[in-house]
Amino acid sequence: MSSQSDTKNLLFKQISLDSDPNVVHTVESLIDEIRNQLDFKEDVYGNVMIAVTEAVNNGIIHGNKMDQSKQIHIDIEKKNDFRLLVRVRDEGEGFDHTTLKDPTAPENLENIGGRGVFLMTHLADELNFSDEGRVVEMIFNI
User: Fold this and answer.
1) Does the pLDDT of residue 9 top 60, yes or no?
2) CA dist 129 → 14, 49, 55, 62, 138 (Å)
3) Per-residue pLDDT for 78 more than 50?
4) Which of 56, 57, 96, 99 has the greatest count of CB atoms below 10 A from its CB?
5) What would the 3-class secondary structure string for 16-27 be?
6) pLDDT at 4
7) Contacts of 33 (CB under 8 A, 6+ apart)
8) Are strands 135-141 and 126-130 parallel, antiparallel or unpaired?
């Protein structure tokens, strides 16, 4: 894990992880470390923790298809006094996030998949996909 700070003293961290579901504890530790540095509210902490671990799990399972020769890349930046940007990138083929079905629709309630992006959308203050779905950016008001 490497971390850097820019000249404006805004938090900036980068980490790359293997496509192994067991790396989730590393993500949780990173979020704990950032929370301690930035001291954001408990509800925001929960939102960041759930949304980022969902994004990482989606990247490992759906993006990289658990191919351990591929990695998940996480960038975390404090944009100003009250915004945290978390960018998660996988090395997979990408996907079209606009085609995902609403997991809360009655016909989808028993489907196993489709809840991760739904959760990220509702937990982050902003959510954006780029690079054909390989990159998800989440912004949290802290």
Assistant:
1) no
2) 19, 19, 11, 15, 9
3) yes
4) 56
5) EEECCHHHHHHH
6) 44
7) none
8) antiparallel
Closest to 65 in 3D by CA, of 101, 93, 97, 99: 93
If you classify domain 2-141 with CATH, what class do you get? Answer: alpha beta
**Whole-structure pTM value:** 0.88
Map out the domains of the chain as residue ranges.
2-141
Cα–Cα distance list, 113 to 62, 78, 99, 109, 118 (Å): 10, 31, 13, 10, 10
Confidence of residue 3 (pLDDT cuts 50, 70, 90): very low
Least confident of 44-48, 96-100, 112-116: 112-116
**Phi/psi at 20 (5° precision):** -135, 120
For 23, the token pair is: 């790396």
Asked if 35 and 75 count as a contact pair (C-beta separation under 8 A), the reply is: no
pLDDT, greater one: 105 or 27: 27
Do residues 47 and 124 touch, judged by C-beta distance below 8 A? yes
- The span from the CA of 20 to the CA of 109, in Å, is 28
